[in-house]
Amino acid sequence: MLLRALVDDHRQTVVMVTHVPTAAAYADRVLLLTDGRVVDDMTGGITATVVAARIAERETLPAEAAVEQQC
Known about the structure:
two-stranded antiparallel sheet; 46% helix; elongated
């Protein structure tokens, strides 16, 4: 992936917004947002399966519970 090459070969910072877990899995860090708030912060060992599971987990919680878990 071209964006991954920029990070690895040229030490560039890339900020990507996506709703696709497989695209997010290329990242060194993934932030999940709900209503403009960070509700999850993932680093290391990020896979599409992990991202999809965290998204599904958040979608089953009421918004208030997700925010409370972050605090």
